[in-house]
């Protein structure tokens, strides 16, 4: 902590000998530092006088660089009333400047006075400066049971390039418990407030460092990145989607975390944790949802009426120092509440910042998605922004929707102000997507009608069609040959059956009659098969299968011949009254050939059938 104060002092050593910049004198300054949250807010009421002879049009405000790097927002306005500001009537323009004669370790801002300040005239105005990450945890790591202590550094004297006749300072803390604070002359501690002064007749760039070490169990809700997408639909809706990446920016947690202790005594064990967040949404927000990477989060509540809509968000687990989470909230808004027309242009008027109070946003990206066909786009905002453009494609888009991307770092609730995006849009462009749908369905139905009424078959004169017809004839011929062969096999099976009947009954005449009938039938089949073979031999489409068909016919005829020889031998043996053993020996060789031929015929039939 001592080293930080040393750096702070070192940056201001050169201020003591800086020259006076003008004849302005600050007759009175009342400063109020609010440290009740993670955001440090300094409200100063300044009464300035012009003791010179020339008109003064601006007043300079000075901040040390080490403090200015944490400055998130600065504003000035005319003061009404005494002491703390009760209201403001006119806002003054504030801009960063680099005046001559100011030490390089200072950052200066200029407050422009619209009417100027003449000789002997005085003016009282309020200045608000908001700082983020100015409160440093000390110690930097604590356990679940410890309290969170913070350190804040500033100056008891008002740092200004002008002489100060009188000034006071009050520091408001969140708790009455104060570990330590710098004690100077005219210092008083009353409860949770420390008062310095009044101090009188301070020279320009007067500086008196103070350090306050105090208890604060306020949650440090920091959004490392927030991406807000505002999509405009001229069909009556504004869809807002917000993607958060949250971290607890307070003292880092060390040791184990006990969920049981936290639930039993949440205000003692983890009292500085982020338990819930309240998002204040615009009135008439609808279709509100809250989800994270896992899915919808049910630990949320929504209250709405005609004036406001509040969404209470409770993460899946409490956030303590260093812990992170990511989630998304989304909601819809009625278009007529935010879209207006002026000078031939449309413009969207909507809040810029985060809807949650006391949340610091390191990087805020706002994407305004305009309808397809928008042109002449311009942005009007009350503070500087980094602007870029991109294109987003959605349903039925052709050229894509223009997207205005606005980026700002170090964002605080004071930035939650209205901004406007102006653009031109032809109302007839709204009909483009409905016409695309109508045209698509129309052409679909026309295509169906054409398909049903147009002959899409192949031409009968084409080579492919003729080849198909020839192959159909070849296939039909082969099927006829297969049928004839199967009929011949049935006849041969009947002839085999007559031999078995002969062995049982001994009726030689019946067996001979069966042989005679079989001969006649086989001759008829042979006549039927000849023209079919001749057709296949003359067709080019049958060239690849003809050898197998011819082999089938040949094997079947060999089978017929072998079976006829067997039949003749058996009948002859029965006429000579040989015994059964003798008959079997005589026909054994023929039977082997018959069995082998039958297997070959069956295999060929199966092969041809597969082709």
Task: State the share of residues found in helices, binned by percent.
Answer: 25-40%
Number of separate helices: 8
| DSSP, total strands | 31
Question: Which shape, going by the Cα principal axes?
Answer: elongated
Structural class: alpha+beta
Largest sheet: 8 strands, mixed
Rg over alpha carbons: 50 Å
As residue ranges, the low-confidence spans are 1-20, 83-88
Alpha-carbon distance between the two ends: 94 Å
Mean pLDDT value: 86
Proportion of residues in extended strands: 35-45%
The main sheet orders its strands as 5-4-8-2-1-12-15-14
Characterise the protein shown here.
- This protein has 611 residues and is α+β, with helices and mostly antiparallel strands.
- 29% of the residues lie in helices and 37% in strands.
- The protein is built from 8 helices and 31 strands.
- It has helices at 2-10, 65-68, 259-264, 432-453, 463-505, 508-538, 546-575, 580-610, and strands spanning 24-34, 40-50, 56-64, 71-79, 88-92, 94-97, 106-117, 122-131, 136-137, 141-142, 149-155, 163-172, 178-181, 187-190, 193-202, 209-215, 221-233, 237-248, 252-253, 277-281, 286-292, 300-304, 309-313, 324-334, 339-342, 345-351, 360-369, 375-380, 386-392, 401-411, 418-424.
- The strands form 7 sheets. Strands 5-4-8-2-1-12-15-14 form an 8-stranded mixed beta sheet, with no helix packed on it. It has a 7-stranded mixed beta sheet with strand order 21-24-18-17-27-30-29, with no helix packed on it.
- A hairpin with a 3-residue loop joins β17 and β18 (237-248).
- α5 (463-505) runs parallel beside α7 (546-575).
- It is elongated, with a radius of gyration of 50 Å.
